Amino acid sequence: MKSRAVEQGFSLIEVLMATALIGIIAGMGLPLLGDVADSIKLGEAARQVERELQTARMTAVSANRPVRVRFNCPGVREYRMVELIGTSTVPAAGDSAANRCAIASYPYPAADRNPLTVPNNDGPVRILDSTVTFQQSTTIEFWADGSAHAAVGLVNPWPLIASPGTNIILLRKLKTRTIVVNSIGKVQLLP
Q: Where are the domains of the chain?
């Protein structure tokens, strides 16, 4: 009795079909991976801004001094926590100066830590990823009691943030992430 040889392996047509199928599936998945990468970068930037706002609130409470977070300061996509030079009711002219976020004028860390000279609690200038921008933002001022305030015209002291809060919106391509700050100083990153 003769035994037949058993053929093993794949034909060229089967290999080409499998390769084409893998290529089609990969081609459909690549845009999804790009969307995931965009979401990750935007989420990371939003968490960094949220942490800076939380840090500013804690600094205001622990130092018993008003602290602001300024956006697009000193440049686009940059933000910085700055301690008020004056007071909430009578801010010094320097608190609104164009160079208030400039490291050259207001270094980080402060040149001295003397509590009689301010600012002592300015933070470093933070920079968003080059593909992320602030779509909407307003300077927020935290007071020693932890409450949050925003500028309304030239009124001093700044009034409490109105209910339901103020939004800071970050944009990357067509996706946005929103951070809400309310009057009691709660900082929340929305999903």
A: 14-189
